[in-house]
Each structure stands twice: as structure tokens, then as C-alpha cells.
What does this fold into?
Amino acid sequence: MAKPKAMKAKWELKPFTAKEKTPWKAAVTSVRKELKVRKRDHPALFMLGATGKHLYEAVQEQYKKAGKKNWKLKKFSKKESGPWITAVANAQKQLHARKRVHPALFLLSVVGKELYEAAQALYTNPNTTKTMKAMKAMKAMK
It folds into this structure.
């Protein structure tokens, strides 16, 4: 079976324009300001967590604007949160491997890069379509 044209090319994000970059820079700057308000035990982890919370709240706001009901995430199970905990721990090991000028920004960028590469691998992996078809077939059997 031939791959669709989109699957043949390497998956990459287009470069952001200056207008698109501005809100992201402002967001990271605001989180850095939150970080510097007081001394933190784990500043890099705080920055990562604060960024995640801001993203969550921004998505909720977009849902409200679209006329959807307000929603909340359910508590994740250990099985669901385990890979995330391991991934953050691995990023933290990479952070502590050597001295960093801006450790919090480094951790945030490592996580962003890993998320990008994971999405890229899922997008370009031809086995994903087989898995999706198998999942649909199992769902149809129920």
C-alpha cells in the first residue's frame, strides 16, 4: 500500500512569524516573572508546572469562547500519568547533567522539543494507521 504524499515528506512545523512568536515570548516572560517573585525549591519544575497550568486555562477559555461548556480534566490514573512522570524525571536528569545558565528555561525547552519529536514520530510512523484500523475494528466488534 502506497503512503499518502504527506507521509513521505518529513513532518515539520513551519517557522513562526514575528506576530505568532510575540504571544509565546510574552507567555514565557510572564512565567519567568512568577518564578522570580520568590525563592523556589525546584525553579525549573515550577516553571514547567506553571506553563502547563497556563496552557490548561487558555484552552478552557477557548472552549468558553466557542460556546462550549466549561470542562475539567479528570484525575489521571497511575498508568496514565506514569509515562509523564518518567519523561519529566528524564528531562530533569538532563538538566542536572551539567551547569545551566537558565535551568528553568532549559527544562521547558527540553520538554517542548521532546513533545515535538514524539508528535513527529507518531505522524511519520506508518504503523500508526494499522494500529488505528485495528482499534476501530475492535470497537466495531463490541
Q: What stands out?
A: The chain has six helices and no strands. The helical segments are 5-8, 18-36, 43-65, 78-96, 103-124, 127-141. The chain has a mean pLDDT of 83. The two ends are 28 Å apart (CA to CA).
